[in-house]
Amino acid sequence: MYNDLKGKNVLVTGGSKGIGRAISLGFADEDARVISISRNIPEDTDNRITYYNCDVSNNNDVKNTIENIISEFGSINILVNNAGIEEYASLDKTGEDMWDRIMDTNVKGIYNVSKYCMPVMLKNHSGNIVNVSSVQADIITKNAAAYVTSKHAVIGLTKSIALDYAPEIRCNAVLPATIDTPLVRKAAILEVGNNEEKISQKIREWGLQHPMGRIGKPEEVANTVLFLASGQSSFITGASIMVDGGLSIKAPISTPRN
Ligand SMILES: NC(=O)c1ccc[n+]([C@@H]2O[C@H](COP(=O)([O-])OP(=O)(O)OC[C@H]3O[C@@H](n4cnc5c(N)ncnc54)[C@H](O)[C@@H]3O)[C@@H](O)[C@H]2O)c1
């Protein structure tokens, strides 16, 4: 438990499922007041969380939603920019619509939400922002040009926010590798089709590429986000924290002795 998260107003984008859901539940367990905004309200809502329907890529939608949140909750202390999408193509196969969709959600979405949360954080002289990037901001897979670009951009924006608003507002990024969420299941289905056994096999294969021997759990990303949002990380800002089971340290070639 982090004593200082209790009673804080925490806004989580993309809180309806996957990593965002785990982050929302993690803050709720700390007795924070959690507000989730996502494209869809989930069926399995938690009564400790307030859900808003909002498209983070739509500036006007975000502006109105955050105005409503501030008038209902008074303030936002912690913002977790987690909403994101992934689609797969190399540059020549990336249509303008795909490029715009990914950049508008993964990058402009963070700009939109952070921008409208900033006045209240500046008024409070305190705030904490955690952005969910990806290990793909460091090591990358083929055929994900727009996604890889978007996740690199998140690091740039994280550093800019950290520098421009220190010391009152801290901003950090988490960089997950493969995490067991609907997004990763969708990626597995694209590779092996809609066959439960083949999907599990593909996910196990991906897991074995991580030195930890498995893919990550959404709660493992959530735990890192909670740490960064808490006072326990008080001298960390502008940082990129890997949550990748060691994936990014592993060279793809082996030495003669192993
Ligand atoms: N799962 C992984 O392996 C993995 C790895 C690295 C990074 N990430 C990143 O973590 C974040 C969460 O991924 P996930 O795996 O939980 O995905 P997911 O598809 O399971 O959930 C995504 C969430 O984002 C919301 N969302 C998407 N577009 C939105 C929009 N325009 N407006 C509002 N909400 C929107 C969805 O409603 C949903 O709540 C993403 O930014 C993703 O890029 C995931």
Give an account of the 3D structure.
The structure is a single chain. The protein is an alpha/beta fold. The chain has 2 domains: 3-177 and 217-246, 3-Layer(aba) Sandwich (Rossmann fold), CATH 3.40.50.720; 180-215, no CATH class. It has helices spanning 18-29, 59-73, 96-124, 145-165, 182-192, 196-208, 218-229; strands spanning 9-13, 33-38, 49-53, 78-81, 127-132, 169-176, 240-243. The protein has a 7-stranded parallel beta sheet, sandwiched between helices. Helix 1 (18-29) crosses helix 7 (218-229) and helix 3 packs parallel to helix 4. The chain binds nicotinamide-adenine-dinucleotide.
Secondary-structure content class = alpha/beta
- Beta-strand content bin: 5-15%
Rg, nearest Å:
18 Å
CATH class of the largest domain: Alpha Beta
Indicate how many domains the architecture comprises: 2
Low-confidence stretches: none
Number of helices: 7
CATH architecture of the largest domain: 3-Layer(aba) Sandwich
Shape: globular
Give the helix level as a range of percent.
40-55%
Q: List all distinct small molecules, including ions and cofactors, that are bound in this structure.
A: nicotinamide-adenine-dinucleotide
Name the helix and strand elements from N-terminus to C-terminus, one letter apiece: EHEEHEHEHEHHHE
Let me know the largest β-sheet.
7 strands, parallel
